[in-house]
Design goal:
The structure is a single chain. The chain is of the alpha+beta class. The chain has 2 helices and 6 strands. Strands 1-2-3-6-4-5 form a 6-stranded mixed beta sheet, with helices on one face. The chain is globular, with a radius of gyration of 14 Å. The two termini are about 15 Å apart. Belongs to the RutC family. Keywords: Plasmid. This is Putative translation initiation inhibitor, yjgF family.
Length: about 110
């Protein structure tokens, strides 16, 4: 069975299939923040969405990071390692050179177990 959460104009924020959650691209609302700040804001949004769907960051399976500022990867990694326990790191891909909306330094998609 497929369950869709939080409908929008062009997509649902979370799609659930069986015990797997797919969370679409998340970006920071405050574009004045640096990479670390935008990542921290996104992680807060992700925590909320995971909780809404009955999961948590400890159940992340895969994370794809699209970065418009590859040279700021260290800032992202600092936020990442503060947010996640290394025992629960998911697989991840960090893709640089992404063309994102103005002021957006990073966008994240995730897959998590329920």
């Amino acid at each position: 069975m497929i369950t869709r959460h939080i409908p929008g104009k062009i997509h649902h924020r979370v799609v659930e299939h069986g015990d797997t959650l797919y969370i679409g691209g998340l970006v920071a609302s405050d574009k004045s923040k640096d990479m670390k700040g935008q990542a921290e804001e996104i992680f807060g949004k992700l925590d909320e969405l995971l909780a809404l769907a009955g999961s948590s960051k400890e159940k992340l399976l895969s994370v794809t990071i699209y970065s418009a500022a590859f040279d700021q990867k260290d800032g992202f990694n600092a936020a990442w390692t503060e947010w996640l326990d290394p025992a629960h790191f998911p697989v991840r891909a960090y893709i640089g050179g992404a063309e994102l909306s103005p002021g957006t330094l990073v966008e994240i998609t995730t897959v998590a177990a329920k």
